[in-house]
Amino acid sequence: MSGLYARESRSVSKMAHLRFFPQAIVGGNGAYVTGDDGRQLLDFAASWGAASLGHAHPAVRDAVNRALSDQAGASYLSAANEACVLLAEKLLSLVPERARGRVWFGHSGSDANETVARMVVTATGRPRIIAFDGAYHGGTVGSMAVSGHPAQQGTRAKGLTLVPYPNSYVAGSPEAAKDAALAHLERLFATEVPPEEVAAFFIEPIQSDGGMLVPPEGFLEAVEALCRRHSILLVSDEVKVGLGRSGRFNAFEHAGIEPDIVVFGKGLGGGLPISAVVGPEPILNHAVAFSLQTVHGNPVCAAAALAVLETIERDHLIENAERTGHALGDALRGLAERHALIGDVRGRGLALGVELVTDRTTREPAARQTALTVFRAFQLGLVLYYVGVRSNVLEFTPPLTLTQGQALEGAAILNQALADVVAGRVDESLLVNFAGW
Ligand SMILES: *Cc1c(COP(=O)(O)O)cnc(C)c1O
């Protein structure tokens, strides 16, 4: 264990920790971070996707420098600032017509989803919200209240109903998964959840923390149709898989749906804290002083976000996510031919997941092997984490700037890590302090 990592434990609380190995970093550039031991590690996590352009991207650095050298205050609560106005105008141009109303700015996916959850109930007068089992919408009281991830230690909202997210792998086929999930929804609407009482339906267009689940074809379209029929607001949580990561700007575009409200976070600030909610004017303007934190609308973070959006366009990073994602996906499917531990490879663009199982027939989750694999990969020079309600899905959310060479470099390290785990070359006791989630 490195010096910095050990020292951290004597001053920094563990309450925000979600650790998989003893990583301590002192710098980073592009798709690599520098450990305090001097090692260069290839970063396939990008801080859970937040470092969307990689580390120390010059466009973000220049934007932040400019914004700080003549700083337009620190907040949009009591004064307009140009960066926020420009960013709002830009975001409005990037969502479907029905969401093209107003933009609210926050710090994180959590405060954004919490704001949406409060806002839709107050604005519509309908008390209920629907979200998915396994959904991660945030870590604050109000965002946990509308989430369904089993690792969370919080209570759910009284008006929340969780419904199954279709899992094509576990169900055996996309059709079976879709039919079961839709039948469940229709039954609920006909019985204990009167649809006219539902304010909003929260979706993740790919359920990332729940296991990088890609919805079956036609599923989100059917959810959209149900929402329209009952005037339920459709909320797309694009926090992890949006902003080009999936190979489209918005991940919901793969399904051809048009949500009423779109939530952005993580990669929006390119590593700085900023989130945004985009939606209809009557909902987003239904009250003043309703959801605010002092440094919301910080012009420095907004300038970084503008630079991120401009760079995604200028450098064709959506196309890169699609192309490099294909290369990485192909490499991972190649690994599946060599390693029986791999049960499924899925995802879109540079939002990919690899589900590990002890038995391909029973699909028994290989949680221990998953934890060992990410630990071993770290030792070998690759940073990636795992997700999933059964803690057995390797998650790939690298910078959108990843090159095909880096994709293959990472896949080669993962190949070695899997081989080492299967051969018993990784010491299980390493995991003692790394419970993950
Ligand atoms: C991470 C995440 C959030 C919460 O974002 P924070 O920045 O952690 O507050 C919300 N929704 C999704 C889909 C996420 O992946």
Protein described:
- With 437 residues, this protein is of the alpha/beta class.
- It has 2 domains: 3-56 and 316-431, Aspartate Aminotransferase, domain 1; 60-314, Aspartate Aminotransferase, domain 2.
- Helices cover 36% and strands 17% of the residues.
- It contains 13 helices and 16 strands.
- It has helices spanning 3-8, 58-69, 82-92, 109-124, 141-144, 168-171, 174-190, 219-229, 281-284, 299-314, 317-338, 367-380, 404-422, and strands spanning 25-29, 32-35, 40-43, 102-106, 128-132, 160-163, 198-203, 233-237, 261-264, 275-279, 342-348, 351-359, 364-365, 382-383, 385-387, 393-396.
- Strands 4-10-9-8-7-5-6 form a 7-stranded mixed beta sheet, sandwiched between helices. Strands 11, 12, 13, 15 and 16 form a 5-stranded antiparallel beta sheet that branches.
- α2 (58-69) packs antiparallel against α10 (299-314) and α3 (82-92) runs parallel beside α10 (299-314).
- The longest helix is centred in the last third of the chain and has 22 residues, at 317-338.
- It is globular.
- Pfam families: Aminotran_3.
